[in-house]
Design goal:
Elements: H1 2-16, E1 28-34, E2 42-47, E3 53-57, E4 68-71, E5 77-81, E6 92-95, E7 101-105, E8 123-128, E9 136-141, E10 150-155, E11 161-165, E12 171-174, E13 187-188, E14 190-194, H2 207-210, E15 214-219, E16 225-230, E17 233-238, H3 244-250, E18 254-257, E19 264-269, E20 275-280, E21 286-292, H4 315-320, H5 323-355
Parallel strand pairs: 9-13
Antiparallel strand pairs: 1-21, 2-3, 3-4, 4-5, 6-7, 7-8, 8-9, 10-11, 11-12, 12-14, 15-16, 16-17, 17-18, 19-20, 20-21
Length: about 350
Amino acid sequence: MRRAAVIGAVVLCALAVPAPAFARPEGAREACRITDPAVTEASGLAALPGGGYLVENDSNPEPSRTRLFFLGPDCKVTRSVGYPTTARDPEDLAVGRDGTVWIADIGDNSPLTGGSGKRRDTIALWTLAPGAKSMKIHRLRYPDGTPRDAEALMIDGSGRPVIVTKDPSGQVFRLDTPLPTDNAEGAPLTAVGRFEAAHTGTSNPWGFLGEGFVTGAAVSPDGTRAVVRTYADAYEFDVPDGDVAKAITTGTPRVTPLPDEPQGEAIAYTPDGRDFLTVSDQPGPVSILRYTVRRPEPSPTPVVSSPAAAPKPSPGAVAAAGPDERGKVALLTGVFVVVTIGLVAGVARRARRRSSGPV
């Protein structure tokens, strides 16, 4: 019964959100193929500025093999870094503007989604500073204490972690207090709002459910854009002021389909910020895919030449004019008012016609 209720709620959420307009990408092409058997079930991805990639695997039969992997441009492992203690369920990674690597140990599957039934009281972020040999842990908690499953992490322009939960209409949380280190009690997150996925119809292994589940996120290298992905699509937002949480909860996205990925749970930007990179969470060899993203070209600013304004007669001049002059002024004023009202009415009619068209 509980499973049916959850599925019913998911259906209602998927049907309630209107589908935005989007253009299909030119298609994905393979950047490289990961064949190292140590890299299994990759759920986080980032591109390195000098070439190559970072990936992290979210699970392994042997916990010590759950690691952060550095890959070359050919996807071959160049080195890896382990966790000082066992990581529970790493699901995403991000690279801050200062080069710090952040790993989001935030997965928490419920029994309905294959979990063990023992939910976690705190989640964790791991950081690897540039040049450091070991990671630091930072424990966080949701403000109401309710466990949540999440797979998406972003670092905003102020260096604050932003987490989006996996459920449809994913909740967005941000750390607004100083980042604690090696803490036992989780620092409270702030609830910011919701990210709204749409019913796009993009083909994916999970059908309409896959259109809503949030599985990854990233911020562009220059910090001006952010992307949140589901199993089906990528939603890109402009971030004009560095406030990622505000952008993804109030902005209008551009939607790029990511059709038929086996289990797409990671997304990243290329170092130049032009394209998306994705990878699927699955065992065995897996490809890093590259999508060419179509973005609208900036519209040129039209140059409008303003005619020279006619000098306005002063009240004294109008009062001093004779009957014929005062009549001409009144007539011209009346014509101006009528024309203005007509223009306003015409604009209003056109607006009503546009708003009453098909949705």
